[in-house]
Amino acid sequence: MPSCCFRSVLLRPLACVGAAALVAASGLAAAADLTVSAAASLTNAFQEIATAFEAANPGRKVQFNFAASGPLLLQIAKGAPVDVFASADQETMNQAERQKLIVTATRANFVRNSLVVIVPADRAPPKALADLVAPAVRQIAVGVPASVPVGRYTKAVLEKAGLWAQVEAKMIGAQSVRQVLDYVARGEVDAGFVYATDAALMPDKVRIAFTVPTEQPVLYPIAVVAASGNAAAAERFVAYVASPPAQTVLARYGFGKP
Amino acid sequence: MASASLDAAWIALGLSLKVALWATALDLVLGVAAGFALARLRFPGRELVDSILLLPMVLPPTVLGYYLLVVVGRRGWIGGWLEDTLGIRLVFTWQGAVLAAAIVAFPFVCKSARAAFENVDVQLEQAARVLGLGAAAVFFRVTLPLAWRGILAGVLLAFARAFGEFGATLMVAGSIPGRTQTLSIAVYEAVQAGQDDLANLLVLLTSTACIAVLLLAGRLAPARIPGRS
Predict the structure, then answer these.
(1) How many angstroms separate the Cα of A99 from the Cα of each of A74, A108, A234, B50?
(2) What is the pLDDT of residues A41-81, one digit of tens each?
(3) Maximum CA pair distance of chain A?
(4) Low-confidence residues of chain B, pLDDT below 70?
(5) Range of the domain at B48
(6) What is the CATH number of domain A2-112+218-252?
(7) From CA B17, how far away is CA B20, in angstroms rounded?
């Protein structure tokens, strides 16, 4: 069809120009700003910390990219212009280290969190993991274990308790811990596994049923990305996150000391 | 791993086809009815209704997904009622995926049906009526056969759109393997998890399926220009 060919001839150069403009724009942003890829559970605390960091470092803008740690790692591995990476588990950061994506010397744990089971505020909370097997609990939101750390912690705990198969049958996979929180807050699922700090954001919509002890502590590591074109500023940000003012903010959101 | 991901890919393909077929069937009935009403009935606010029906074509799928969550969610106006009285749940079910896909694809059927009906010569219908056919018979034996080709083109587009639906479906139906994880969502999930092997398999399968649909479309709706096959 001639009209179709004509269109693709017309559009292809346009697409190239568009792609080039995008690359140029992201390159410019990387030069002027600090890009921080951080686990979704850090969203609120990090936004507040960035404001204070910018005030202490005039002219420096912090840009965030919040998502589950798995996809963040993939973006960095595929060459995304990121300066600092903060993940919600050691496993993701270990992968980053193995792939030589981070500056190992800058890696440090900066906060601790805990895993909790939450239910919609108007629902009777279960008392223990075994109660989740009851037929009344029809759907349970869990972060997808392959890419979401909170899902990985959840799966490990449930496997150890011998309940994973039963819970998996009721599992609604979520793309990040914040999606689990959203599903529970809307009452679309009967229960969900999130971090204590996420549950604390919506006290009127979700209720913490109980804390789930994890075999591996929920420790958050942060590190400077090896490909950062901005290493000095990135190191300053990593150091700032460990400083008392930033730790005070993190503590206010419920994060524990590492 | 290879055979497991192949199984997962086939299941996702089957689910995508099921969801797209149901959504297209729904759109066929509702879209033809709405297109006919818009083409033949004169009522105040007709163009406003037309615009509202075409909205899913321009609204971002995430906006539609959010509307749907608010309306058919367990605490939504309709969703709460459905669950309390009929025990039907739409969120996180394949029926929810059908609803999302049907809404997103609806304008394609509605718009082409309206255009097709407007192109039908009214004199032919009048002649049929004069010769003694009832209103329903005129519609099914004269109007619909004359408008059929235009409607079919819209239906095929709607099927293609429903088959590839992602945003609204993910928001309403989630991503449950084997139940609501359609091909497009499985691709997203595989990329998020860094499973490039599975992603490659899925995009290959999707592309092949889309080419098959387009070839089939070419067969079903032969070129309008006489002499071209």
Answers:
(1) 11, 17, 19, 55
(2) 999 999 999 999 999 988 889 999 999 999 999 999 989 99
(3) 68
(4) 1-2, 220-229
(5) 2-220
(6) 3.40.190.10
(7) 5
Q: What is the ipTM of this complex?
A: 0.77
For chain B, what is the domain count? 1
Q: Are B37 and B118 in contact (CB under 8 A)?
A: no
Residue at token pair 């004199």: B123
Nearest Cα of chain B lies from the Cα of A71 at a distance, in angstroms, of 5
For chain A, residues classed under CATH 3.40.190.10 are: 2-112+218-252, 115-212
Angle at A142 between CA A140 and CA A144, to 5 degrees: 140
Tokens of A158: 């449930």
Inside any domain, residue B229: no
Q: Which residues of A touch B (CB under 8 A)?
A: 68, 70-71, 73-74, 77, 139, 144, 146-147, 171-175, 186-189
**Measuring CA to CA, how many Å separate A91 from each of A28, A107, A198, B193?**
32, 13, 21, 14
Q: Which of B73, B75, B192 sits opposite A175 (nearest CB)?
A: B192
Which fold is adopted by the domain A115-212? D-Maltodextrin-Binding Protein; domain 2 (3.40.190)
CB contact under 8 A, B194 and A139: no
Mutate to test the interface with A, among B69, B192, B195, B197 (most CBs of A within 10 A): B192
**CATH number of B28's domain:** 1.10.3720.10
Q: Is B192 within 8 Å of A139 when comparing Cβ atoms?
A: no
Chain B residues close to A172, C-beta within 8 Å: 92, 174, 176
B74 vs A71, A175, A187: nearest CB: A187
pLDDT in tens, A114-172: 999 999 999 989 999 999 999 999 999 999 999 999 999 999 999 999 999 999 999 99
Q: A16 — alpha (psi -120 to 50), left (phi > 0) or beta?
A: alpha
- B46 Cα distance to chain centroid: 23
> Which residues partner with A108 through β-bridges?
A222
Of A119, A177, A191, A188, the C-alpha closest to A143 is A177
CA-CA distance, A98 to B195, in Å (whole number)? 17
Task: Give A90's contacts (C-beta < 8 A, 6+ positions apart).
Answer: A216, A219, A221
CA distance readout (Å), B85 to B78, B80, B81: 11, 9, 6
